[in-house]
Amino acid sequence: MTKVHEGRLVLPTREDEVAAAGSEFIGGPIGRHARLGGHWLHPVRVVALTAIGMFALGMVQKLPCYNWAWFRGAGSQYTHACYSDIPHLFVARGFADGLTPYFDRIPGDMAYLEYPVLTGLFMEVASWLTPGGGSMQHREQMYWMANAGMLMACAAVIAVCVARTHRNRPWDALLFALAPAFALTATINWDLLAIALTAAGMLAWSRGRTLLAGVLIGLATAAKLYPVLLLGVLFVLCWRAGKWRAFGAAALGAAVSWLVVNLPVMLLAWEGWQKFYTFSQERPIDFGSVWLLISQRTGNPLADANTYATGLTLLLCAGIGLLTLSAPRRPRFAQLAFLVVAVFILANKVYSPQYVLWLIPLAALARPRWRDFLVWQACEVMYFLGIWLYLAYTTSGDKHEGLPPEGYQLAIAVHLLGTLYLCALVVRDILMPERDVVRRDGSDDPSGGVLDGAGDVFTLADALRGQRQEEPEQRVEWGAARGG
């Protein structure tokens, strides 16, 4: 396995015009003879502290709700765009009453907690850290603060993992740390736990620790469903490179770690454990989805939305698989991870505002270009504002304060088009690898681990020609062929 330009840091201000322009706020692009990697300016440290700072700014943005809007009816938390599930579910899911998730039945329609087991454990630990005295309003505030502290730690983990995944491109992680949508949505829900485990799994894979990568992906899947899609990505990449042993180790690790977390609850509280899966299956089309847009525009309730969403997801994932096996050069792990998670989001029955967090670290690794990243982020910020103003409209009665349905439909379209725009650029980079900024220095796949520098064992072109494939070590590596 060849490592190209190991240790030579890529500086965004020297290769990205937007980063160079933005650096004027701190003195301009770094000089040719600047001394890098000092005690305080170590990239990973700077990225982590920046992420913590942006997270804190996001907490400040929630102050109107923290102080009063969460507790004075629905409208104010929407007009101030500071809604969070966390304080509301503290009461609604029984944490305030000391109920045990999955085991104790919750009064009301939900019956049991509708989150995967590891997320439920995270919520429960936060409730243990919440003081028991004082008014219910004070307890909800303290529960949100306890969760925010734990989620901030997850954000720091994500920043560090993204910065370390591409050894010579740590500054690309600033895309995650400075993302506006990250600050705005980080404390809406508990998604950062699964994202942190996913980022750690990708870092482990990039270091060739395939079993550990699988374990972390399995744990991430025990916190949120989407990380399991990365196993599909690794399957087609390892198929093309003939790295079946690596894929087997990752798949085994994921299966075992997922079972270790889930099996005790499955055996002791089956009805509570399955609530997440039955709820996901039974819930109707909801906010932010392409299906809601179609339903509202046509007046068709789309009762078969499950079938449509599942079929579209499978069709698009099959397309990504064909792209992987037919591209002129094997795509990078991060590129395919971004595409498959984006497909899952675009075809899903619901798009909650915090789902953008799933994509931000992957986008930083898949296509670290500031202009296109910020275009996409602008679309997501518009959707973030759109959904809250729409909810303000629907909860304000005859006053109709906020964004009417037509405006919200436009916000959904902007979100969909922004995500599709970034997907199209990633696909273009795959089809035209010479345009991939990560590979400009001769690198193959810095996040690929055992795949980095590996040759092809199977491609669709060779299969269609019926040619016998050469062994990986007999192939000329791309970086060496171009003088890298």
TrEMBL record:
The keyword Membrane applies. It is a multi-pass membrane protein. It comes from the Bacteria. One of its GO terms (molecular function) is hexosyltransferase activity. Keywords: Cell membrane, Membrane, Transferase, Transmembrane, Transmembrane helix. InterPro entries: GT87, UCP010361. It comes from Streptomyces globosus. This is DUF2029 domain-containing protein. Belongs to the glycosyltransferase 87 family. The chain crosses the membrane at residues 40-60, 142-163, 175-205, 211-239, 246-270, 306-327, 333-352, 373-391. It holds the Pfam family GT87. It is found in: Cell membrane. One of its GO terms (cellular component) is plasma membrane.
